[in-house]
Write a structure and sequence with these properties.
Helix content: 55-70%
Number of strands: 6
CATH topology of the domain at 205-291: Thrombin, subunit H
CATH architecture of the domain at 205-291: Beta Barrel
Order of helices and strands: HEEEEEE
Length: 291
């Protein structure tokens, strides 16, 4: 056999081995692929059945959802209608509430105005009541003053009556003294003595007219046991030196006889004569007219 033939046979053998090596895995892989294809077809059929089933369920669900959607839409429409009705009621209630609030504000304003008027009326009433009380107090005070004035007037009238009685008594005493003095003068003349002339320092100056009233404002003892008293009447009141006054206390208590010695415009100094009781500051004096 030629080398070429040997080489060719060897080459064919090698190629056969290589081909077998390549064909066996390929065949095995084709079988596996066929089996996988069968399995895939089975799975595809199962999947298609599942899809069909799901589509049926989806259709059923769509039908159910459609019915439910209609019911839901009807419910929504009904609810919207109820909401609109409720909104109308709310609007009406809000309008009523606004009117009620306005009425309440008006009532509050009226009440505040009424309260202010009541406060003002109360203040006016209080002021009027206070003024009435003040007027009543003034009336009571005036009534008390009038009562006191009436009592004082009655007291003065009583004092005046007592003084008039004392003056009459003093005049009677003066008449008696004048008669006694005349008798003494006649006796002196009969005995050849002298009669003191009128206008001597010890003679009293007759004073006529209305009585002069005053008060003792002070006193002072002088040597010889006599007393000087100060009275709050003077020349402006018609008082003159040697004029005699009667000092008295209360209504009819005779205190002493006074004789004016010195006279100023509004006061005078007198010596105490015929003191009955102790003369004190505050005793009243009255001119002894005609003494």
């Amino acid at each position: 056999m030629s080398p070429l033939t040997k080489a060719f046979v060897v080459l064919v053998t090698v190629l056969s081995i290589l081909l077998v090596t390549l064909v066996v895995p390929f065949v095995h892989r084709v079988d596996a692929l066929n089996e996988a294809k069968v399995n895939a077809e089975t799975v595809a059929k199962a999947s298609e059945a599942s899809i069909n089933n799901l589509q049926d369920q989806l259709g059923t669900l769509r039908e159910s959802l459609g019915a439910k959607d209609v019911a839901m839409q009807n419910a929504i429409t009904s609810a919207e209608a109820q909401v609109a009705q409720a909104q109308g009621k709310v609007t009406a209630l809000e309008a009523k509430l606004a009117k009620a609030e306005a009425d309440n504000l008006a009532i509050q304003a009226t009440m505040e105005s009424s309260a202010a008027a009541q406060v003002q009326n109360a203040e006016l009433l209080s002021a009027a009541t206070q003024e009435l009380r003040n007027t009543q107090t003034k009336l009571v005070d005036r009534s008390t003053e009038n009562t006191q004035l009436i009592a004082r007037n009655n007291q003065l009238q009583s004092d005046l009556s007592a003084l008039e009685r004392q003056v009459r008594k003093l005049r009677e005493q003066n008449v008696a003294l004048s008669e006694e003095n005349a008798n003494l003068e006649r006796a002196v003349v009969a005995g050849g003595g002298e009669i003191p002339q009128a206008g001597a320092a010890t003679a009293a100056v007759p004073v006529s007219g209305d009585p002069i009233y005053g008060q003792v404002t002070g006193k002072e003892a002088i040597p010889g046991g006599n007393q000087l008293v100060m009275v709050n009447v003077g020349k402006n009141d018609g008082v003159v030196p040697n004029q005699r006054f009667v000092a008295y206390r209360g209504q009819n208590e005779l205190v002493a006889m006074l004789e004016i010695k010195t006279v100023d415009a509004s006061e005078a100094v007198a010596v105490v004569l015929n003191e009955q009781t102790g003369i004190i500051t505050g005793d009243y004096v009255v001119s002894a007219s005609g003494l």
